Hints:
This protein has helices spanning about 15-20, 70, 75-80, 100-110, 125-130, 150-160, and strands at about 5-10, 40-45, 50-55, 85-90, 115-120, 140-145. It is of the alpha/beta class. It has a single domain, classed as Rossmann fold (3-Layer(aba) Sandwich). A six-stranded mixed β-sheet has the order 2-3-1-4-5-6, with helices on both faces. β4 (about 85-90), α4 and β5 (about 115-120) form a beta-alpha-beta unit. The chain binds guanosine-5'-diphosphate and magnesium ion.
Amino acid sequence: MNPVIALVGRPNVGKSTLFNRLTKSRDAIVADFAGLTRDRHYGHGKQGSREFIVIDTGGFEPEASAGIYSEMAKQTRQAVAEADVVIFVVDARAGVSAQDHDIANYLRRLGKHCVLVANKAEGMLEGIQLSEFYELGLGQVHAVSAAHGQGIRSLVDLALGML
Ligand code: GDP
Ligand code: MG
């Protein structure tokens, strides 16, 4: 099976926008993904000759007030479990939040391959303005703009290169 990349992060950081950037077939039929749980948002991605599956984890967002464990419950945990690589999306403009820390702690404990991505970074000075994200303890922060299509190709290279 092709590698599976899960997009996680708190609401409104741009996961779905990134999902749409990464996938050509936005309405992929879930039945194509035999063996994967069916209640999330799957899509096919392709870069050069490399194909991959992307999971958007928008489903946990309505429970945002219920705390990280219920919020990331089920859908996100299952998506992460199915993923070969997790792309953890944060908001370059909003900065680090308590919820980002909770998600980072969760991901670090799992020990999965993880790429930290600061979205909405168009026009920003990476080295200076994104340095605070290093406190999440997930290594290097990778700047992208899902809306403007910046940094996407190297993000895919980075994510697939971990496998
Ligand atoms: P999700 O809740 O994490 O799935 O976030 P969405 O993809 O729904 O995006 C939330 C908001 O952020 C929307 O208004 C998007 O248009 C906006 N957004 C997404 N990506 C970018 C980006 O690269 N730059 C900027 N400035 N806004 C973005
Ligand atoms: Mg979404």
